[in-house]
Specification:
Helices cover 30% and strands 32% of the residues. It is built from five helices and ten strands. A ten-stranded antiparallel β-sheet has the order 5-8-3-2-1-10-9-4-7-6. Helix 1 runs antiparallel to helix 5 (188-208). It is globular.
């Protein structure tokens, strides 16, 4: 194995290790189907919206990211709960302004899921949502305290099994429409394939340079 190939493989293994350890778990979003869904808007949301779940200060930090570049704004986030005690704080970069809903809001289209989405906590962008929501190249962090005896591993297991779902409502697509999404576990084989394809592409470009 040449030195360059060794670096590619080592880098791939490092990425796989980081994806499930110190950097927490990363989840994509999947649209909640509806008769009036716009396939283009759904594809945009699934391509550029992610949720990272990390351990932080004895609690769990949920970080929502909109990588862009297509117009879209996360207006609200909703959490189911058996493990989360309360929202400790919101981490809001400049340009993002959210508040914890005193009265838990309904996730649009959440009732169409099976079982229906059961909101326990919701946070919403301060009106007006654009520009206060999470637009392209912006993030929002929601830090939760955990119930006594609950660990970070318990939360990840609940997300992976579907016992704890996280949803978002997204507006301001170029079409003028809106869509709702839920975070879904990404199988390790899919992650491996995505990272592997990236490494192969990098190696091919190096050979052609």
């Amino acid at each position: 194995m040449t030195g360059t190939r060794f670096c590619v493989v080592s880098g791939l293994l490092l990425l796989l290790g980081l994806a499930g350890s110190a950097y927490g778990e990363l989840y994509p979003f999947e649209v909640i189907p509806a008769a009036d869904s716009d396939p283009t808007d759904a594809a945009i949301g699934e391509a550029q919206l992610t949720l990272e779940v990390t351990e932080s200060n004895g609690g769990v930090l949920f970080t929502f990211a909109n990588s862009g570049p297509e117009p879209s704004v996360i207006r609200m986030a909703a959490f189911e709960n058996d493990l989360l005690a309360s929202i400790d704080s919101l981490i809001e970069p400049t340009g993002v302004d959210f508040e914890v809903d005193g009265n838990v809001a309904n996730l649009p289209r959440g009732n169409s899921l099976s079982p229906p989405f059961a909101e326990a906590f919701t946070v919403s962008a301060v009106a007006p949502p654009p520009p206060n929501g999470v637009g392209p190249d912006e993030t929002l962090g929601v830090l939760f305290d955990l119930e006594p005896g609950v660990s970070f591993a318990n939360v990840i297991s609940a997300i992976e099994s579907g016992a704890l779902r996280v949803g978002i409502h997204v507006i301001a697509f170029e079409s003028g429409g809106s869509e709702s999404f839920v975070a879904v576990p990404l199988p390790g084989s899919v992650l491996l394939g995505m990272l592997g394809m990236g490494a192969v592409g990098w190696w091919q470009r190096r050979r052609m340079a």
